[in-house]
Design goal:
Strand content: 15-25%
Radius of gyration: 32 Å
Number of domains: 6
Subcellular location: Nucleus
Number of strands: 32
GO molecular function: metal ion binding; oxidoreductase activity; transferase activity
Helix content: 25-40%
Largest sheet: 8 strands, antiparallel
Main location: nucleus
Organism: Helianthus annuus
Structural class: alpha+beta
CATH topology of the largest domain: Jelly Rolls
Strand order of the largest sheet: 3-14-9-16-7-6-4-5
Protein name: Putative transferase, transferring glycosyl group
Distance between the termini: 83 Å
CATH class of the largest domain: Mainly Beta
Length: 932
């Protein structure tokens, strides 16, 4: 627009934002940019043509960085800008190369949000050091002095711990590039996808980039991808213990990282995983550190804790953004503890401390997290089920809800009702004896294990509660870890017991065991026997010559059906002529244990009839009252139908009483489980094991199945309103002459299929997202299609794949071997609580994936001794995929209630790049087709 002012002509540009954005003008630039992040690269490119302002917003480098990293980039190559890098990956760079080189410029548009982002991309940090830091520097710190003054208490900077390391001289970008230039390292960035770059490509990126939050190498597998790096340093003598070292490297959580980053990169505010402690040694460059004590959430940071599974999510600005935008707002008394770390210095970060790191120049460092006697109980606490205690550990009393009352129980566990009053919490009179920090009648936050464990939810048991995906270790791995500590470190048993009581409720289950031992005249567990064994989903104890298993998984109704079906199966097996009974441990006793009036009481139960305690205390009514085993196989199949697709939290509460548990006592066998012998057994003995399993599967699958009579079937139909596909049998298969057992089986399969894509998405990595998108297309419309159907003489379709007893869970910890002279021979199969009726192929899946680890020769050996067909099928070359035995097996893997696909893709990294389910099917199960 031309205007005249003071006899001079000036050109004034109008604000082009309203006209260029239309209705989007109502939104801030930050919100519009956030929306653009949700689009595909192609959509963003199209939207850039809509208007001048959209062109500006759609060409921002941070946007294209997010678009690029949101895709699976296994080996990323930076092409000078993130837009060019993205277009190169889409193979359209040549077509749009000119537009990348010649950006357009527009006047009449200003954005403070974009300006700040631009400033962060190009700011220099030469004078950003905090040389007069208030983190103590201690030279020649002795282990005793560190233990007494710092360990688990406060940070400290220690120079000189790395002076003898080879890494002190050789870990520079130039020297590492010479030896490891073609080695790929994992990159840290905010996308959930795994991104790796070759070191030579990453060094090139560091030299070219101008990102506001630059990528940096944060590789926890550097010891595997570049093992020589482990020779260049050693754990400083101040940190000798790491209780996770009882686990093999492939079992333990990530614990050591190689860190390489350019200026402006760094780690945003966080508390280390599982409240572990850490040491970090800098080899090259300078780092600025900021730290807050536990419970002190930094300004600008938000902590979210999921009240269902305890998953912790922290929203935080980048480290550079925090220092530029939030740090200046802090009063002196609110500023963090700070320091600048110099090459050769090691900083110690205690358990639970918030910390943020900013690289002032290109840096190279090595860090390790660890568990020792000072933080062991805190780690166990953070891995315990529930959410309130996790919030309090990180956010202090700010994590508590308003206007809720705190009450203390006799076992020192707090109920789930918690409150905050001016950042303090009111206590009841019966808490007065407890030695907590207090101000008058108010309880101040204290990072003390006795204080923090008050906020555990006593109603959430480790074995039955949802497991947080943010935990650094899995539920089964936690049990394995604590068991190995208990056996391997007897001198620490007092400490281990305290931690296990927090994480596993070992005190509760041991008291339950005392009641069972007393009732059945079994000697009390010896010291080594006080701890539940194995990684299974139920507490199991080895006591003298007995194995005691308490059923808790998935709630009371699931447990009753597990034991009821197991006892029914044992009854059928014992009355048969099958030699399988010689390879199943004898049942010595079974019953129900329940907690009532302050003590544990026992009621024997052989699976027949409904126990009085269940009638009295439970609302379970899905039983078959007119059968010998009311919680037997057909009642279990009804329960399987109801729970198909049901969330775990609903399943646990399904007819569940939290103080009633079925149990079984079996004979303890001499020898070892296959899981303990896998790495030492010679090839010949493993081959013998495969033959043994084939024979036993044969005996299992030919056992007579409990018939479903007409009365029971009508009861079944009434309960389910059963049929195919939403309660009505599909018209296209009305003439199928399905046996009752098969009809039940197919109905359950079809129900499991309905939410398969959402379930696979929830499981996530390593299942490829591209395959999840194709899963419904791959699966059959109706599972009846998968079974060999043909017309009989009357013109009716019949199914030749009858249901049989299936174990469904024969894995390496359920196979027992005994030593005969100098060799190990398979003797027993354990744990028949997962017994069901179904396709015999279901037993092949865990055996092949877990015991055989995909070894085709072992599978062939099993099939040779099995000597039964898995149903009559046409050959796989007739062009019909539903006739392939491999296709049927793959479908079972996909809809399985356990994460079978995680095992498949975890076992074979090559399969993660498969473009179709057919590729996976052929690779894993293709050899099955040769058997028929």
């Amino acid at each position: 627009m031309e205007v005249e002012a003071n006899s001079q002509t000036q050109i004034v540009s109008s604000d082009r934002r309203p006209d260029a954005l239309g209705d989007f003008n109502l939104l801030s630039d930050e919100i519009v940019c956030s929306i653009l992040n949700l689009l595909s690269p192609r959509d963003v490119a199209c939207l850039a043509c809509a208007s001048s302002v959209m062109y500006i917003l759609c060409n921002e480098e941070p946007l294209w960085m997010n678009l690029c990293l949101s895709k699976e980039n296994r080996n990323l190559q930076y092409k000078g800008s993130w837009k060019r890098t993205t277009l190169h990956r889409l193979q359209v760079l040549n077509k749009y190369d000119d537009s990348c080189k010649k950006p357009l410029h527009f006047d009449g548009f200003n954005s403070l949000f974009l300006y700040k982002r631009f400033y962060r991309c190009y700011t220099r940090l030469d004078g950003f050091a905090f040389d007069q830091g208030n983190v103590e520097r201690k030279t020649d710190l002795s282990p005793d002095e560190f233990l007494q003054q710092y360990d688990g208490q406060k940070p400290v900077l220690v120079p000189g711990l790395a002076e003898t390391w080879m890494a002190r001289k050789t870990w520079t970008p130039e020297q590492l590039l010479i030896k490891y230039g073609d080695t790929s390292f994992r990159i840290s960035q905010r996308s959930a996808n795994k991104v790796s770059m070759k070191l030579k490509d990453y060094v090139s990126y560091m030299q070219e980039q101008h990102d506001e939050d630059p990528l940096y190498i944060f590789e926890d597998k550097f010891g595997e991808v570049a093992p020589d790096l482990l020779k260049d340093y050693s754990v400083p003598h101040l940190f000798p213990d790491d209780y996770f070292d009882v686990l093999d490297n492939d079992q333990r959580p990530p614990f050591r990282w190689l860190i390489i980053g350019p200026e402006r990169s760094g780690a945003s505010w966080h508390v280390d995983p599982a409240l572990t402690s850490a040491w970090n040694t800098l080899l090259c460059g300078r780092k600025r550190w900021a730290l807050y004590p536990p419970g002190r959430v930094p300004l600008g940071v938000t902590v979210h804790v999921n009240d269902e599974d305890g998953d912790v999510d922290i929203e935080t600005p980048s480290s550079l953004q925090w220092w530029l935008d939030f740090y200046p707002l802090l009063a002196d008394e609110d500023k963090p503890i700070e320091c600048t770390q110099l090459p050769g210095e090691t900083i110690y970060v205690p358990t639970g401390w918030w910390h943020c790191v900013l690289n002032l120049e290109t840096t190279i460092a090595v860090t390790q997290n660890y568990v020792n006697s000072k933080n062991f109980e805190f780690v166990c606490l953070d891995l315990a089920p529930g959410y309130q205690h996790k919030g309090v550990c990180r956010a202090g009393l700010l994590a508590l809800e308003e206007n809720a009352k705190v009450s203390m129980e006799e076992d020192n566990l707090i109920s789930s009702e918690l409150t905050r009053k001016k950042k303090k919490v009111k206590i009841d009179e019966h808490m007065d004896d407890l030695s907590f920090d207090r101000n008058g009648s108010d309880l101040e936050f204290s990072y003390d294990i006795n204080f923090l464990k008050m906020f555990l939810d006593k109603n959430r048991d480790h074995y039955t509660s949802l497991w947080s995906t943010s935990n650094c270790i899995g539920q089964r791995e936690l049990r394995d870890w604590l068991w190995k500590l208990w056996i391997g470190k007897p001198g620490l048993r007092d400490l281990i017991w305290k931690g296990a009581c927090i994480a596993l409720n070992t005190n509760k289950w041991y008291k339950c065991m005392e009641g069972l031992c007393s009732f059945h005249n079994i000697s009390l567990p010896a010291d080594e026997e006080k701890f539940p064994v194995g990684t299974g989903s139920n507490p199991v104890y080895l006591v003298g010559d007995n194995v005691v298993k308490i059923f808790v998984e998935d709630g009371l109704q699931a447990c009753l059906h597990a034991l009821g079906t197991e006892l029914e199966f044992y009854g059928i097996m014992q009355t048969s002529e099958s030699s399988l009974k010689n390879h199943v441990p004898n049942v010595l006793a079974s019953g129900i244990v329940f907690f009532e009036n302050g003590s544990y009481k026992i009621m024997p139960w052989d699976g027949k009839g409904v126990p009085d305690v269940i009638t009295k205390h439970s609302t379970i009514d899905d039983v078959f009252p007119d059968t010998e085993y009311p919680f037997g196989i057909w009642s279990k199949k009804l329960f399987e139908y109801k729970k198909a697709g049901m969330p775990l939290e609903e399943l646990v509460s399904l007819g569940g009483h939290s103080n009633i548990w079925p149990y079984i006592i079996t004979k303890r066998c001499k020898g070892k489980i296959f899981a303990e012998l896998r790495d030492v057994l010679p090839e010949e003995e493993v081959s013998d094991l495969a033959s043994f399993l084939g024979k036993q599967l044969h005996h299992l699958h030919v056992l007579p199945v409990t018939p479903l009579n007409d009365l029971s079937y009508r009861h079944f139909e009434k309960k389910l309103e059963m049929g195919h596909d939403n309660g009505t049998i599909d018209n296209s298969i009305q003439n199928i002459n399905l046996p009752a057992a098969s009809k039940v089986f197919f109905t359950i399969l079809n129900r499991k299929k309905k939410d398969v894509s959402s379930r696979l998405t929830k499981w996530g990595h390593p299942i490829p997202s591209t395959l999840i998108e194709k899963v419904n297309e791959y699966l059959p419309k109706d599972f009846v299609e998968l079974h060999n159907m043909f017309k009989n003489e009357d013109g009716q379709f019949v199914v030749h794949n009858c249901c049989s007893w299936v174990h469904t869970d024969i894995m390496d910890d359920n196979i027992h071997l005994e030593q005969v002279k100098e060799s190990w021979r398979p003797s027993y199969i354990y744990d028949f609580s997962n017994m069901s009726l179904g396709d015999p192929i279901l037993d092949l899946i865990p055996i092949h994936l877990d015991i055989f680890r995909g070894d085709v020769q072992l599978l062939k050996k099993l099939l040779e001794s099995y000597k039964l067909p898995f149903g009559k099928r046409r050959s796989s070359d007739d062009g019909c995929k539903v006739r392939r035995i491999s296709y049927l097996t793959m479908c079972y893997c996909i809809i399985h209630e356990e994460n079978i696909l995680g095992a498949i893709f975890g076992m074979s990294k090559e399969l993660r790049t498969a473009n179709s389910w057919e590729e996976v099917e052929e690779a894993v199960w293709g050899d099955l087709n040769k058997y028929y």
